[in-house]
Structures are given as structure tokens and as C-alpha cells.
Amino acid sequence: MNSQAKKYFKHLGLMREDIREELDLINLPENVLKICDFGCGKGLTTYGLALEVENSECIGIDRFDEESSPT
Predict the structure, then answer these.
(1) Quick one: which of 9, 13, 59, 71 is 20 to 30 A from 20 by CA?
(2) Across the chain, where does the E strand assignment appear?
(3) CA distance linking residue 35 with residue 50, whole number of Å
């Protein structure tokens, strides 16, 4: 595995730890379908899922806000 791939997988691991910490802070009922949209942007897909899937709790997670987005 080359060094660029190693950096990428290390970054993914750090993101996973950050996301796990955030999800652990959210208290969701056990009998509800849980949907997490990673990289949700403005959350339009997340909102659509929340409307379409009955008895669900939808959470959108994005690392950037509009002002600090790299695009």
C-alpha cells in the first residue's frame, strides 16, 4: 500500500472516531429506524428520507458548513 493510500485510510479512521463520538451523544429511542446520512451537505436528501420513511429518525452529518466548505 502506498503512502497516499495509508494517509487516506488513517483520515477515514479519524473521521469514523469523530462521527462515533457525535452519534453517542444523540439519545434515540430503540424502536425507531435510525438513518444517518454522512456527507449530507444542505440535508435535502436527509429531509426527503425523513418524510418518506415512517417511524424513522434521520440525522445528517457533514464536516463543513457553507462558509468553510472546500468547494
Answers:
(1) 71
(2) 33-38, 56-61
(3) 9
Burial class (CB in 10 A: 0-12, 13-18, 19+), 58: buried
Which residue stretches of the chain have pLDDT < 50? Answer: none
- Provide the 3-class DSSP secondary structure of residue 42: coil
Residue 56, strand partner residues: 33
Taking the C-alpha atoms of residue 35 and residue 46, their distance in angstroms, rounded to an integer, is 8
Q: How far apart are CA 71 and CA 69, in angstroms?
A: 6
Q: What is the pLDDT of residue 66?
A: 61
Residue 27's identity, in one-letter code, is N
Write down the pLDDT at residue 67.
Answer: 63
CA neighbor of 32 nearest in space, from 3, 56, 59, 4:
56
List the grid coordinates of 19.
462521527
